Amino acid sequence: AETWQNVPLAPPDSIFKLTAAYKTDTFPSKVNLGVGAYRDDNNKPWVLPVVKKAKAILSNDEGLDHEYLSITGLPEFTSAAAKLILGTDSAAIREQRVASAQTISGTGANHLGALFLSRFYTFNGPKQIFVSNPTWANHHAIFRNVGIEPVDYAYYDPKTIGLDFEGFLNALRSAPDSSPFLLHACAHNPTGVDPTPEQWEKIADLFLEKKHFAFFDCAYQGFASGDLDKDASAVRYFEQRGVPMLVCQSFAKNAGLYGERVGALHLVGVDKAAADRIRSQISVLQRSEISNPPAFGARIMALILNDANLFNQWKEDIKTMAHRIIDMREKLHALLTNELRTPGNWDHITRQIGMFSFTGLNAEQSKAMVEKAHSIPDE
Ligand code: PLP
């Protein structure tokens, strides 16, 4: 018998399926709306000017070798990354209560965080994590891989094309005490719908009341508003309020370092001793998974985060990207409403945040867009 005869054929990843369909399409003005990567005005990937500068510095550094990093990564990267998300005035950082590890971008941070939870979190009942409905599809697979069942909480309301805030609060209330909840720090994927600061306050109240654990996923810091601090405000607010938490951090989008796989996981402990214990176990887990994280992207980010001039340039580059996205939303909104007088309300296009937008189109309408509205116009 064939060794792998029991291996069933897996369905293709829907995003990659869309990309494949896009590639074979001959329509001259085709656009790929599926891919989560920034494009410039020429529909091309954008290498950030600050990244070009950092790369030049690295390539001129004669002393640079290709040794292994330590298991938890490049210390000057992880410590600066922690400050970037938790803030320079973070009490947890000051009190050395943060255990940080460099990860394989945001996906790796989510995985390592999930694995840590699976091993060490005291689940009150079944091993489950509450995730927004909908969420980044990979969240489900990442948690299931480590034996934690994702359970939906109400988040997106198709009627308002906005946040189902009451549904969200009810889910927080009705979950067993001490439940882990996955939260998108900003620029929710895929809806572009974020809670307001006032709503975050009420959410944090319930986390404290119910002793829930906040599993923050932050893949878009700076991308939502163009301001790194503003986009970190929910995470920082939860830390200030003392909600037990961890943060997954990605530099794929905000530094355009998609392929370099540079990210970090930060776990906030109650004191330094707790953080030391957490770090020691994170090291054990990381060792068997990847031994040590990759150096190149971390070196680039360490340069950018630790040098005042490069850091300022990065902030400008982030503004360029975020403001283009905001600008595109405004143009699309104006086109749909003022120019084309498309039936329906399109205000959600500009109300939503970040690079993702729920159009409000249903499956049938989307299909019609692809199959009918898409044809080479008659000459
Ligand atoms: N988390 C969310 C919500 C995302 O949207 C993404 C990327 O699309 C990631 C994590 C991880 O991305 P990466 O592994 O490229 O950093």
From TrEMBL:
UniProt key word Transferase: yes
GO cellular component: cytosol
The protein's Enzyme Commission number: 2.6.1.1
Entry's Gene Ontology molecular function annotations: L-aspartate:2-oxoglutarate aminotransferase activity; pyridoxal phosphate binding
Pfam families in UniProt: Aminotran_1_2 (PF00155)
GO BP, sorted A to Z: aspartate biosynthetic process
Catalysed transformations (reactions): L-aspartate + 2-oxoglutarate = oxaloacetate + L-glutamate
EC top class, as a word: transferase
Gene3D superfamilies, A to Z: Aspartate Aminotransferase, domain 1, Type I PLP-dependent aspartate aminotransferase-like (Major domain)
Subunit structure: Homodimer.
Protein name: Aspartate aminotransferase
Highest classification ranks of the organism: Eukaryota, Fungi, Dikarya, Basidiomycota, Agaricomycotina
